């Protein structure tokens, strides 16, 4: 396991993050505490140092289990959790990105995790009802108070993130250092706006669901797959199954698992993307961790990307199609320009 810097900070984070939405059995498909301990140990022994959880995961059990597993080694890990999601649906102020919910959520998370500070706090999802200025100032106050060290945001539009960091830079507040976004061969939407923005602003990306809820693990395309599944077979499209079969074919040629191919692809072009490994068993996690050493041949990458191709849409397709000839003229072909994400 190698390490990269988180965004424009000096914090060292491992190539892969350990996701703990499966820690706890309250949601019906998670792992027991004993299995969580085995997965945590395997990840740590592989050199991983980022543990990613959230206040709402398994209704708080994930944070409690993570806190227990960290124990006296807490300072050796980059502990990340999230706020936004409500823990009390009867209280209108128990959810959202406003200051009141932030303070309450962080204090509750610290208690469940058994720690005095968070290394990284993610805003879990964009809350259109809270001004981004309020969120950024409130986050900065907690950084100055020593409750959190770095901040990031998950599941938000590119324009909002760019605006938030511009405001933070202008006012001397703590900016977002990273993004947490869904990314896999079957869900490549972030290539349109979010990844180019992340590259331009030097933001790290934590990729959640790199196996697309297990679709790319072979569970629906190989007869050996067993449940329980988070994704129902009936909801999986023929397009997604076709992509999964291409992943299977590449995996068979390379003599590796389908999961390893799918995870390795997320980092094929952008090493600043960190796949979040969210396994239910030790065997699954061990297999996923092996993707660290898998470098896909260029031909395989091209096949995979062709199978999962998406349209960039406007404005990127319009800009890319017209830039060289219409905007720059013949001389444009002689210029080595910047790469957009």
TrEMBL record:
Keywords, comma-separated and alphabetical: Oxidoreductase
CDD domains: AKR_AKR9A_9B (cd19080)
Residue ranges annotated for the NADP-dependent oxidoreductase domain, each copy included: 16-307
Lineage top rank: taxon: Bacteria
GO MF annotation: an example: oxidoreductase activity
Alphabetized InterPro entries for the sequence: AKR_Detox_Biosynth, NAD(P)_OxRdtase_dom_sf, NADP_OxRdtase_dom
GO CC, any one term: cytosol
Gene3D superfamilies noted in UniProt: NADP-dependent oxidoreductase domain
KW Membrane (keyword) present: no
PANTHER family: NAD(P)-LINKED OXIDOREDUCTASE SUPERFAMILY PROTEIN (PTHR43364:SF4), NADH-SPECIFIC METHYLGLYOXAL REDUCTASE-RELATED (PTHR43364)
Official protein name in the record: Predicted oxidoreductase
């Amino acid at each position: 396991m190698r390490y990269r810097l988180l965004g424009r900070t000096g914090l060292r984070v491992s190539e892969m993050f350990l996701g703990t939405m499966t820690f706890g059995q309250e949601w019906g498909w998670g792992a027991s505490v004993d299995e969580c301990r085995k997965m945590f140990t395997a990840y740590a022994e592989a050199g991983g140092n980022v543990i990613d959880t959230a206040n709402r995961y398994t209704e708080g059990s994930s944070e409690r289990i993570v806190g227990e597993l960290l124990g006296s080694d807490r300072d050796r890990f980059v502990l990340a959790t999230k706020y936004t999601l409500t823990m009390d649906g009867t209280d209108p102020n128990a959810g959202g990105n406003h200051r009141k919910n932030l303070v309450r959520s962080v204090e509750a998370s610290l208690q469940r995790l058994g720690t005095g500070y968070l290394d990284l706090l993610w805003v879990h999802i964009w809350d259109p009802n809270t001004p981004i200025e309020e969120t950024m100032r409130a986050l900065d106050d907690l950084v100055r108070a020593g409750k959190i060290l770095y901040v990031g945001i998950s599941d938000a539009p590119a324009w909002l993130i760019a605006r938030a960091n511009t405001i933070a830079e202008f006012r001397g507040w703590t900016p977002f250092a990273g993004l947490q976004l869904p990314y896999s061969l079957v869900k490549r939407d972030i290539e349109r706006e979010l990844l180019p923005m992340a590259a331009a602003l030097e933001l790290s990306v934590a990729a959640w669901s790199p196996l697309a809820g297990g679709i790319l693990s072979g569970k629906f395309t190989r007869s050996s797959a067993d449940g329980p599944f988070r994704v129902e077979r009936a909801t999986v499209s023929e397009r997604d199954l076709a992509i999964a079969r291409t992943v299977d074919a590449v995996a068979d040629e390379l003599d590796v698992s389908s999961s390893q191919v799918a995870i390795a692809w997320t980092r094929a072009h952008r090493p600043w993307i960190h796949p979040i490994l969210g396994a239910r068993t030790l065997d699954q996690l061990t297999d996923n961790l092996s993707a660290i050493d898998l470098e896909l041949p260029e031909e395989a990458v091209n096949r995979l990307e062709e199978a999962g191709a998406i349209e960039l849409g406007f404005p990127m397709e319009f800009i890319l199609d017209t830039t060289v000839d219409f905007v720059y003229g013949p001389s444009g072909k002689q210029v080595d320009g910047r790469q957009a994400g």
